[in-house]
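Researcher: Can you fold this with zinc ion in place?
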Amino acid sequence: MALKRRIFFSSKSIWLGFACAVSVSCASTGESSFREVAVEPDPPHECGFCERLNEPSEPFQIYGDTYYVGTAMISSVLIASDDALVLVNGGMTQTAQQIADNIKELGFSLADLKLIVNTHAHFDHAGGIAALARATGAKVAASARGAEALEQGRPTEDDPQRGLVENVFPPVPEVQIIADGATVSAGEIELTAHYTPAHTPGSVAWTWRSCEDEGCLDIVFADSFSTRSAPEFRFTGGADYQGRIETFRNAIQTVAALPCDILLTPSPLSFGVKEKLAARSENPDTNPFIDSGACAAYAEKAEAGLEKRIAEEQTAQ
Ligand SMILES: [Zn+2]
């Protein structure tokens, strides 16, 4: 199974990936490597579509030290250096074990997880963070508003989805705030936070560079720009929300302007994981995840989605 999965990799990576599966020397090599840590999951999140969201996915290499370790419907991404692992997003509460298993299947040790960052604090991307941080001692980092939501285990007062009853998750006791434009590091891995307040007030696009022999690329894990909200919420309405549309548009433009060779998003559907894996399977010498136009295209779709939402709110008035 492992070999079958790794034929998706570029030819050089096939062997690196395979070697990592049988040797500790090329995975994280700190003293903690392959010390087993157990995840004690929080109670599973209950919702009508949760089972579908948590449908398992094989982990796979995206590029260089960047790997997909999420479910078939919710993205979590691992960045792996010789001295640390970093995770972006933690799925739902019941996804924590799946992420841990995927990390192990790639040949890494969960004990080496040093940092977890979050693009936005909703139940489907932040639910597993508390259990993974507890198991590993990993530091958790987010934007200022993201940290507020993570520490209280529910969206902030001004979050469009605040009123949705399902949107709660296990609180994360201690979250480090990373300022807009600032960096956070674990070992050799360095990520930059770009605040993109839109889908939530605390939304962040995280960027880093990943390298292979062929060169280094700019990776962007942009947040969702979905305008899904609680029924009573209006992006266009109320004194509390003045400037909200402009803030949303600016957030979209922030992502459009980022150096971007590979786009990742909280939903694997939004960056075409299934199609790209199929294309890579057909031609293993190519990497369809590399697409320098992906961030601009994502921003264009987000703009269209926002305009549609504005029109709907105006019609409903
Ligand atoms: Zn969300």
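Model: Folded with zinc ion in place. Confidence is low (pLDDT under 50) at residues 1-30.
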